[in-house]
Amino acid sequence: MTTTLYQEPWEELEAILGADDVQRLKVYFEELSPGETARVISRLREDDQERLLTLLSPEDASGLDEQVDLLGKLDAQKSAAILREMEVEEADEVRQLSQFAPDTAGGLMITEYLVYPDSFKIGDVLEDLREHTDLYAKYDIQYVYVTSSNGELIGVLRLRDLLLSPRETPLTQIMISRPVQVRTVTTLDDLQHLFDRHAYFGIPVADEQGRLVGVVRRDDVEEAIGERADRTFLKFTGIVGGEELRSMALPLRAYRRLSWLSINIVLNIVAASVITFYQDTIAAVIALAVFLPIISDMSGCSGNQAVAVSLRELTLGLVRPYEVLRVLLKEAGVGIINGLLLGVLLGSVAWAWWGNPYLGLVVGGAMALNTVVAVGLGGTIPLLLRRMRMDPALASGPILTTVTDMCGFFLVLSFATAALPWVAG
Amino acid sequence: MTTTLYQEPWEELEAILGADDVQRLKVYFEELSPGETARVISRLREDDQERLLTLLSPEDASGLDEQVDLLGKLDAQKSAAILREMEVEEADEVRQLSQFAPDTAGGLMITEYLVYPDSFKIGDVLEDLREHTDLYAKYDIQYVYVTSSNGELIGVLRLRDLLLSPRETPLTQIMISRPVQVRTVTTLDDLQHLFDRHAYFGIPVADEQGRLVGVVRRDDVEEAIGERADRTFLKFTGIVGGEELRSMALPLRAYRRLSWLSINIVLNIVAASVITFYQDTIAAVIALAVFLPIISDMSGCSGNQAVAVSLRELTLGLVRPYEVLRVLLKEAGVGIINGLLLGVLLGSVAWAWWGNPYLGLVVGGAMALNTVVAVGLGGTIPLLLRRMRMDPALASGPILTTVTDMCGFFLVLSFATAALPWVAG
C-alpha cells in the first residue's frame, strides 16, 4: 500500500531551493505552465525568493530587465550581494540603470541596441550582423542607430531598410535624420504621449551631453503605465508602497496597512467630534443616530466617484492641475442632480419610517446639500494636491471623507436643532 | 487698436469642425503637441468627436486599431454610418474585428501581417517585400509566417532571419516549426502570461479550424492590461461602464454615477436599520451616536484594503478563486493585529472623552472584532464573486460595507445594551 502525499507546487520548489539543487530547479521551471510560474514564486517566502535569484544564473533568469525590477525591491545591502554574484559586465549595467528613477526613460530603457558610425555602409552593417549572430540573438532589434564620432545620435534605420537597399548604400543616405529622441529624465507621462502619437517600437534615449545611452521600448512603457494604474488603485484603498503580496511577512503587511488606517482613524475622530456638540438634539430625536452613518457613507461614495474621474483625467493629461474652476463647475451639475435625487429618496424614507415630514426635510435637505459639497470637493481635491506636489491617489480619500463627514454631520444636526419643535414632535 | 480674443484650442477645433474644413483640420493636428491632442479631443462634445472621425480619412486617422476602439464606444447605428463612409476593404476589417470580445486575442489582434506559402524560398520573400514596399510600409512587421496550403500556420521566421540566410534557402528549412499560437477566444489573462514568459513581439492567432487569422502584439496586450487596471479602479469607486470624461453630457454622467449610488443608498438604509432596534440604548448612552459612524467608516477602510489586495492578486493570477480558506487565514492575521491596535486606540479615546472605562471597552471591543470581520470578508468576497461569475471590482465594495456596517452596529450596540448599567453610569 502506498500513500500519495499531495504537494503544492511551491512546496516542491521550497524543497529544491533548500537543497541548492540548480539542475532540478531548471527542470522544475521548464515544466511549469506560464500561469503557474508567477503564482508559485509569489507563494515563496522573501528569503526563498532571494535564494532563487541567487541560484539562477543570469542567463537562466528570464531577462535582465526583470532582475533590475526585483533588485529595486530588495534593500541595498542584499542587492549588492546579488550584484557581486552576477557577471561583472551585466552587473555594471544593472547598477547603471538603478541610478535612474523607475518611471523615467532612464529607468525604463534597455542598453542593448545596435549602433554604427556614420561612415558605415549597408554592407558593413550586414557583415557585423552576420559576425555577431549569437550575441545579437538575445537583443531586441527594431532599429539600427547611427551616431557621429562624438556619440551623438544623428539618424535611425528600420531593420527592413537594410533588406531593401543595395550593400554599397551609405547609412547616412537612407537613414531618417534627426529622429525623435528623449532624455534619461523624460517622464512616463511624456513617453506615453510620444508613443500615443507615433507608431514607434522604441525611442532612443540621450544623456545630458546628447549622447545615445539607451532605447526605451513601447511595450516597456505600456507595462509601466499598467503598473502605475495598479499602484494608483492600491494607494487609493490604503495599500501604501505599491505591491502587497500575501507571501510577505505578517507584521510587515499589518504595519503597511496600519500606517494609513491610523491616520484615517484620527481624522474620523476629528470629524465625529462635530456630533458631540449636538448631543441634546440627538437625545431629543434618536432617529438622527440612524441617519448619521448613512449621510457619512453616501457622501463618501459620491465624492470618491469624482475623485476617481479626476485621478484618471490627471493621469491621462486630460485635465491640468490649475483647472480647478472648470472641474468644479462640471462636478456641480452632477452634484446637484444626484444630490436632489438622493435627498428626495432618503428624505422620503425618513418621513415614511418615523411618520414625520419635517424629519424627512431635515435629513433629505442635508443629504442633497452634502452631496453637492462632496462631489465638488472630490473633483477638485486631487487637482489641488497635485499642485501642492502631494500624491493625490494617496491623500484624496481621507481628506475628502473627513471634510464631507464634518460638513454632513453639521448640516443634518444644525437643521434638526433649528427645526427641533417640529422634528421632535 | 486691436482686441486679441484668447481662444482655447478646442474652441478653434470646434470652429474647424463646424466649417467642415478638412484641410485646416489636418494642419491643426499637425501643429498640436502630443499631450494636447488627447486633451483637446476629450473636450469636444460627442457629436463633434463623431464628426471629427467622419471628416478624417482612414489614412489620416492615427490607425485602424484606434478606430475600432472608438467605434466600439459609439452605438451600433452610428458606427454603421461611419463604416459606410470608410473604404470598403478597411471597413470589412473593422467589422470583422468588432465581432470578437475586446479583451480576447480576436479583439486585440491586427490583421496586417506577412504570410507566405511553405513552398517559398528566402529569395521569393525578398522579392515580394521589394515589390510591395509602399503597402508594407504601413505594416508592423516583426515576423514572417509560413502556412500550409490549407491556411494552417506551420512556422515562423524573424525578419533578421531573412537577412542572414542565402536567397535559395527554403523557408521551411530555417523557420521555427510549430510556433506558439493562440485562438481568437484566448483571454487577456492568458495572453499576459504568455508574453510574460516569452520574449515575443507578437503571437499568431488561429481560428477554430486552425487557420492563421491575425497577430496579437505585445504592446497591444500591455495597453489592454493598463486599460483594464484603470477600469478596475473606476468600477471600484462606482464609475460604471469604464471611462467617464467630463466632456460627456451632464445627464449621462449623472445617470451613470447614480445607478451605483442608488444601490448603495438602499444597502446603507438596510444596514442602518440595525440601529433602530437599539434606540433605547442610544437614548441612554448618547455617546454611542458619535462612535457609530467611526466604526462604520474604519471597518470599510480596513475591508477595502483587503479587497484591493485580492482584486490585484486575482488579476495577476497569484490567487485562484477557490483559495478562499488560504486568503481567510492570511487576512485573519492582519485583522487581529490591526483590530487590536485600532480597538485599543478608539477605546482609549472613548474612555478619555467620556471618562467611562466601560464605554471604552464596549467601543474598543466592537472596533477590534469588526476589523477582523471586515478584513476577512474584504479578502474573500472578491474570490467568491469571481466564482459566481460576477464582477468583483464592481460589487465587492457595496457588499463589504453593508455587511461590516450591520455587524459593527450590532456589535457595539449589543455590547452596550448588555453592559448598560455600567456604560450609562
State the largest interface: A-B, 112 and 112 residues
Coarse structural class of chain A: alpha/beta
Number of helices of chain A: 21
Strand order of the largest sheet of chain A: 1-2-3-4
Shape of chain A from CA axes?
elongated
Rg of chain A is 30 Å
End-to-end gap of chain A: 81 Å
Mean pLDDT of chain A: 82
Low-confidence stretches of chain A: 1-5, 62-89
Assembly state (oligomeric): homodimer
H and E string of chain A: HHHHHHHHEHHEEHHEEHEEHHHHHHHH
Record field, number of beta strands of chain A: 7
Q: How helix-rich are the residues of chain A, as a percent range?
A: 55-70%
Largest sheet features of chain A = 4 strands, mixed
Percent of residues in β-strands of chain A: 5-15%
What does this entry look like structurally?
In chain A, 66% of the residues lie in helices and 7% in strands. The first copy, chain A, is α/β, with parallel strands linked by helices and 425 residues long. In chain A, the strands form two sheets. A four-stranded mixed β-sheet of chain A has the order 1-2-3-4. A three-stranded mixed β-sheet of chain A has the order 5-6-7. Chain A is elongated, with a radius of gyration of 30 Å. The termini of chain A are far apart. Chains A and B meet through helix 3, helix 9, helix 11, helix 13 and helix 14 of A and helix 3, helix 9, helix 11, helix 13 and helix 14 of B.
